Leucine-rich repeat-containing protein 57
Amino acid sequence: MGNSALKAHLETAQKTGVFQLTGKGLTEFPEDLQKLTSNLRTIDLSNNKIELLPPLIGKFSFLKSLALNNNKLTALPEELCKLKKLETLHLNGNHLRQLPAAFGQLSALKTLSLSGNQLRTVPTQLSGLRHLDVVDLSKNQIQNVPDTVGDLQAIELNLNQNQISQISVQISHCPRLKVLRLEENCLELNMLPQSILSDSQISLLAVEGNLFEIKKLRELEGYDKYMERFTATKKKFA
């Protein structure tokens, strides 16, 4: 892509606060964007070939939305965690194995998508995020859900298509968790904490495609309580 095209994009971004350049084969984060650190509210560089996110990302202090889906990122810089206004972060389809240690400082974050990466566990840093609504960790290599999940503030947690065989009973204590997706994992019925049914806020539990028949779930103690929540929620949205 020529400089003139990039220049035109930058001029538009300066006016709109939105910089979108997707599917252009970019191999690096456009350095020229640093001229717009105080303008930009949205950056979308999805469907490129970016391998590194430079430390300068930390300077976009007004950024609300960052999308880098389908790139070649293997790690994220600590500087990303300085984005105190960031509400939406989409990083689907990369090669991420972990999140920066300071990730919990992204205090405004509401939506986090990390589908199709190489995470092996639910990152403990997520428990520090107080405004998180939706977390998508589907299509990773997660094998267990640790105790720290009990502090997660999310309303929806998507763990579909992982390799989960163990879940901490603490997941029942998530204060706001309403939707839990666990489809296509490696769960035996006895590894699913019954307290999810009997003693949690969860009103939609999706567990198709595990190592048990769904009808067996209905025989578990607490299933009636779960169905009460499920039905009440359905009525609310109907």
